[in-house]
Design brief:
75 residues; mainly alpha
Length: 75
């Protein structure tokens, strides 16, 4: 795998995860425990991806997660 393939993969993955997480937030209702669990999983995924990017010195722009704040946008 080339470096550019990995970069494109991470950028695309970030876009897809963010899009799915925000859709899960819209769909979640306080009465549906499944939807709330689904949203909680996306909260963990986005938080982990952002934290790992920071550890590896990867700017959040490079993984398309600079404009989402899990605490603000997914809780």
């Amino acid at each position: 795998m080339t470096n550019s393939t990995a970069i494109n993969y991470l950028l695309d993955l970030g876009h897809l995860v963010k899009e799915s997480a925000l859709k899960a937030k819209i769909s979640a209702s306080s009465e549906d425990h499944f939807d709330l669990g689904y949203l909680a999983a996306y909260y963990e995924i986005v938080s982990l991806m952002q934290a790992q990017a920071e550890v590896f010195g990867i700017p959040l722009q490079e993984i398309a997660l600079w404009d989402i704040n899990p605490d603000r946008d997914l809780l």
